[in-house]
Backbone:
Protein backbone atom coordinates (compact mmCIF):
# COMPACT_ATOMS: atom_id res chain seq x y z
CA UNK A 1 0.00 0.00 0.00
CA UNK A 2 1.13 3.51 -0.80
CA UNK A 3 -0.20 6.68 0.80
CA UNK A 4 -1.49 9.15 -1.79
CA UNK A 5 -1.22 12.77 -0.76
CA UNK A 6 -4.49 14.15 -2.18
CA UNK A 7 -6.65 11.34 -0.77
CA UNK A 8 -4.81 11.54 2.55
CA UNK A 9 -5.34 15.30 2.82
CA UNK A 10 -9.04 14.89 1.96
CA UNK A 11 -9.43 12.25 4.68
CA UNK A 12 -7.67 14.48 7.21
CA UNK A 13 -10.07 17.35 6.43
CA UNK A 14 -13.05 15.08 7.07
CA UNK A 15 -11.70 13.53 10.27
CA UNK A 16 -13.18 14.50 13.66
CA UNK A 17 -10.09 15.88 15.43
CA UNK A 18 -12.02 17.02 18.51
CA UNK A 19 -12.16 13.44 19.77
CA UNK A 20 -8.48 13.87 20.67
CA UNK A 21 -9.12 16.92 22.85
CA UNK A 22 -6.64 17.00 25.75
CA UNK A 23 -5.43 13.40 25.31
CA UNK A 24 -2.06 11.86 24.48
CA UNK A 25 -1.83 10.56 20.90
CA UNK A 26 0.68 8.23 19.34
CA UNK A 27 0.85 7.85 15.57
CA UNK A 28 1.47 4.28 14.50
CA UNK A 29 0.98 2.33 11.28
CA UNK A 30 0.26 -1.36 11.86
CA UNK A 31 0.47 -2.39 8.18
CA UNK A 32 3.27 -2.66 5.68
CA UNK A 33 2.18 0.57 4.01
CA UNK A 34 4.82 2.96 2.76
CA UNK A 35 4.41 6.11 4.85
CA UNK A 36 6.23 9.19 3.55
CA UNK A 37 8.10 11.35 6.04
CA UNK A 38 5.63 14.23 5.77
CA UNK A 39 2.53 12.15 6.64
CA UNK A 40 3.02 12.02 10.41
CA UNK A 41 3.87 15.72 10.43
CA UNK A 42 0.70 16.54 8.51
CA UNK A 43 -1.42 14.58 10.99
CA UNK A 44 0.35 16.37 13.83
CA UNK A 45 -0.58 19.76 12.32
CA UNK A 46 -4.23 18.82 12.81
CA UNK A 47 -3.61 17.79 16.41
CA UNK A 48 -1.65 20.85 17.56
CA UNK A 49 -3.79 22.79 20.02
CA UNK A 50 -6.10 19.81 20.52
CA UNK A 51 -4.05 16.86 21.83
CA UNK A 52 -1.89 17.15 24.95
CA UNK A 53 1.06 15.47 23.24
CA UNK A 54 1.68 13.74 19.91
CA UNK A 55 4.42 11.17 19.26
CA UNK A 56 5.31 8.82 16.44
CA UNK A 57 5.62 5.21 17.51
CA UNK A 58 3.74 2.89 19.80
CA UNK A 59 2.32 3.49 23.25
CA UNK A 60 5.63 2.57 24.88
CA UNK A 61 7.39 5.21 22.78
CA UNK A 62 4.87 7.84 23.91
CA UNK A 63 5.25 6.77 27.54
CA UNK A 64 9.03 7.02 27.24
CA UNK A 65 8.71 10.63 26.07
CA UNK A 66 6.31 11.44 28.91
CA UNK A 67 8.53 9.82 31.54
CA UNK A 68 11.53 11.67 30.12
CA UNK A 69 9.75 15.00 30.55
CA UNK A 70 8.78 14.10 34.11
CA UNK A 71 12.30 12.92 35.00
CA UNK A 72 13.77 16.21 33.75
CA UNK A 73 11.62 18.20 36.23
CA UNK A 74 12.54 16.29 39.40
CA UNK A 75 14.88 17.77 42.00
CA UNK A 76 17.30 14.94 42.67
CA UNK A 77 19.27 16.71 45.39
CA UNK A 78 17.32 14.84 48.08
CA UNK A 79 18.95 11.62 46.84
CA UNK A 80 22.50 12.94 47.29
CA UNK A 81 24.59 10.18 48.92
CA UNK A 82 21.47 8.20 49.85
CA UNK A 83 20.50 4.64 48.98
CA UNK A 84 17.80 4.71 46.29
CA UNK A 85 15.28 2.01 45.45
CA UNK A 86 13.74 2.12 42.01
CA UNK A 87 10.40 0.45 42.49
CA UNK A 88 9.98 -2.59 40.26
CA UNK A 89 6.25 -3.15 40.41
CA UNK A 90 3.76 -0.45 39.56
CA UNK A 91 0.07 -0.14 38.74
CA UNK A 92 1.04 1.16 35.31
CA UNK A 93 3.83 -0.24 33.16
CA UNK A 94 7.02 1.82 33.20
CA UNK A 95 8.99 1.78 29.94
CA UNK A 96 12.44 0.27 30.24
CA UNK A 97 13.87 3.44 28.71
CA UNK A 98 12.48 5.43 31.64
CA UNK A 99 14.27 3.13 34.09
CA UNK A 100 17.49 3.51 32.12
CA UNK A 101 17.13 7.31 32.15
CA UNK A 102 16.52 7.30 35.91
CA UNK A 103 19.67 5.22 36.47
CA UNK A 104 21.76 7.62 34.39
CA UNK A 105 20.49 10.57 36.40
CA UNK A 106 20.83 8.90 39.81
CA UNK A 107 24.21 7.17 39.50
CA UNK A 108 26.33 10.31 39.95
CA UNK A 109 24.18 11.34 42.94
CA UNK A 110 23.10 8.28 44.91
CA UNK A 111 25.12 6.24 47.37
CA UNK A 112 23.55 3.08 45.95
CA UNK A 113 20.78 2.13 43.54
CA UNK A 114 18.62 -0.96 43.86
CA UNK A 115 15.73 -2.20 41.77
CA UNK A 116 12.62 -4.07 42.94
CA UNK A 117 10.62 -4.01 46.14
CA UNK A 118 11.86 -3.41 49.67
CA UNK A 119 11.55 -7.14 50.42
CA UNK A 120 13.38 -8.24 47.28
CA UNK A 121 15.90 -5.92 45.66
CA UNK A 122 18.47 -6.31 42.94
CA UNK A 123 21.57 -4.19 43.53
CA UNK A 124 22.42 -2.09 40.46
CA UNK A 125 25.08 0.30 41.71
CA UNK A 126 27.15 1.11 44.76
CA UNK A 127 29.33 4.21 44.91
CA UNK A 128 32.98 3.29 45.47
CA UNK A 129 34.44 4.27 48.83
CA UNK A 130 36.56 7.40 48.73
CA UNK A 131 40.18 6.78 49.66
Residues:
Amino acid sequence: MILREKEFRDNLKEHNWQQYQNVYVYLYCSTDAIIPGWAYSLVTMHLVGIARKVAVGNQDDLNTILYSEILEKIDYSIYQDKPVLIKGCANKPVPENALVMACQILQPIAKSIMFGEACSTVPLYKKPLNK
Helices lie at 5-14, 37-47, 59-73, 96-106. Strands lie at 24-27, 53-56, 83-87, 112-117, 120-126. The chain has a mean pLDDT of 92.
